[in-house]
## 1
Amino acid sequence: MGYAGDISPKQAWELLAQEPGAVLVDVRTRAEWAFVGIPDLANLGKKTVLLSWQNYPEMAIDADFAGKLKAQVGDVSGPVLFICRSGARSRSAAIAATAAGFARCFNVSEGFEGDKDGASHRGQRGGWKFAGLPWIQD
């Protein structure tokens, strides 16, 4: 597997609430954060770390992702949870962070918006928003 495992959005919220050192890293793009929203951890006294795994518009993986992650998170021993739109990019980021020395990396498997429904819309089948967890939009 190469990382600590997949967890649901509700499990992610519980872990963030229970472990003071737990961090949530949103690996989507700046446009996604601005237009779709981000997880709001204010009720937990935390902020979501915004760090793109891939840079728009080329969508090339950020070669310095691990270095930037270490600079923003610091503690490599605590739980680091990764979230993206649907769980694919965040899984790759969790694997890379584990390889870079982070001990407990989790993938939020349903992502922020979940999978597409029958009409090819997101937000109706799984995901952080669908689970009713707090989020904000600029």
Note: The first strand starts at residue 5 and ends at 7.
## 2
Amino acid sequence: MALAIRDVREHDLDAVLALNNAAGTGILATDLDRLRHLYEIAHYFRVAEQDGRILGFLIAMRQDADYASQNFRWFQAHYESFVYIDRIVIASQSRGHGLGRIFYCDVQSYAEVRVPLLTCEVFLEPRNDQTVLFHGTMGFQEVGQQKMEEGPKVSLLARELPSFPFVRERYLEHGGLPKVEWLAERQRPIDGVGAAA
């Protein structure tokens, strides 16, 4: 069966949590309550599914999210408008096959019609040169560093989205994006009941 990138569903959260906590030192472990909070606030939360198995996920949010992450707050303090990649996890057996690039292309297509910047961080302790190189080849530049209160030192990265000025001038300043499915926002739950309008 073909690989599908789709919005997360609530019943996926147990599988997402297991993937997150099996990822190793490059991803901070979490618990179901924190993951559920991300599920409720994330503007972009997609999974890769094949043959009924979740092979990976990426969580991202815009600058107005109610999120206490120290790294997210750093970007809020320095930039007016952005999409922040909080985490990406690929199952160990699926690494090295381009799934990370597929996710980054997908989140970029979400971001570039809404904001001028795509942001994230990578751990510098322990340094993972494969991760650093991956982000460099995807066009990210270091814009700062900081030591997390309960974690490692990180490199804060941003990528300018060259399509955004065109989208802003042609659409966002003249009534907004077209009403087509591929441009629609994720339907997020409100207070744990139903979906956002």
Note: The mean pLDDT is 91.
## 3
Amino acid sequence: MHKSERLFQLVNVLKGRRFAMTAQQLAAHFCVSERTIYRDVQHLQCSGVPIEGEAGIGYLIADHALPPMMFNVEELSALLLGSKMVGAWTDPTLSEHARSAMAKIEAVLPDHLKQSQDSSPYLVSSFSHNEKQQQLNKQCRQAIEGKQCLQLSYCDVNHTATQRQVEPLGLVYWGGKWTLVAFCLLRLDYREFRIDRIQSACTLDIYFEQHSEKSLSHYVALVTAKYANCSNNK
């Protein structure tokens, strides 16, 4: 369990309890050392979480509203909006994690901040992201994370069908359309493939390595330099 997840769970365990829990009990619950619990409690107390008690006696959180993880209204709005975007525009697995994150954030919001979020001016639409594109998005993401090649059946802007074996490097969202950035083994160069134009994809048992001249950051640097040069020549 990551520290951030443990801290959140620690707050949930201590919140509203009638009796204090000792560091030993908490350590057993989270399968960590008592020293880790002491550090976690100190971290939460310094962040403004009203944990009462002390080492050797036990800890609890008084039954009153908790600060929203020390985020202000604007920060919470940004986090919730970002989670809604992930939930609507990515793949099913990330969407589920986004909904879980939103539930955790909303669980500690005071009423006045919940009302503020209910009146948010932003609406995140998912109309153009169908199940096929979501599954392709997930397959591409997993291939990127696993550094596995993909075999794509692709239809370009001229409706020309082509087969490409690529090394997937990243997914870029262009406001309505996802694009797979990859190193094409046919062209031996970077190419962009719109997810909605991929007819099918097969993850291959072929692995690749990234380096300074074959990576998403290198691709972004080349594109940035290209557009900078175009602007300077105008």
Note: The mean pLDDT is 84.
